[in-house]
Amino acid sequence: MTVLTKCAIGLALVGSAEGFSPVGTPARVVTRHASPQMLQSRRDALFAGAAAATTLAATASPAFAAIDEDANEAAMAAIAKKAAAQNAAADAAKKANIKTPEEQQAAQDEAKRNIGIALAGSVVLSVPFYYRNVLRLATKIGSGGEDDGYNTYKEGKKGAKKAKKVVETSKPSLGKSASQFFFKRNFDDQ
């Protein structure tokens, strides 16, 4: 496109936008004039838009009429040649990444081994949080269900090696002692 064509297109676009834009002051602004200000009519706006469209059509058509068919075909052939080369390179890369059945089996075996290691590690690392429950379960199974294991192992301080057996005493609990003190009543165990 020549500079003159570009200028004509730009002028047509500016003219068409100006033809459809409202001219005047906002409705609520009060101006004091001796004569009233005339707004552009709808008919004038349509004529300005039609003139801009005609100018645009007149300046744009010579630019599209001068397309060289040979240059277009040459450009399309160059694009097709480049795309074919890229497709061939992608196919070669895919063929290079194909694994043999032995490699696939080795990868699956390694994945299974890693899953087993993760499973065993999670069990080993979580046992410290529930080993007392495991001890109580062993006690209950060993006694045939008679001893539930809660009276066998006492909760100790953190870091204690093994809890000692709890011996039942007749000493009242803290709750019963507090209720006897505050309510001045004696609660007997029944």
Keywords:
190 residues, single chain, 5 helices, elongated, mainly alpha
Please give a structural write-up:
This protein has 190 residues and is mainly α. Helix content is 64%, strand content 0%. Helix 1 (3-20) packs antiparallel against helix 2. The longest helix is centred in the middle third of the chain and has 42 residues, at 101-142. The chain starts with a helix and ends in a 7-residue tail after the last helix.
List the helices and strands and how they pair.
Blueprint: H1 3-20, H2 42-65, H3 69-96, H4 101-142, H5 174-183
Helix pairs in contact: 1-2
Q: Low-confidence parts, pLDDT < 50 over ≥5 residues? A: none
Number of strands: 0
On the 0-100 scale, what is the average pLDDT?
75
Principal-axes geometry comes out as elongated
Quick overview of this protein structure:
The protein has 190 residues and is mainly α. It has five helices and no strands.
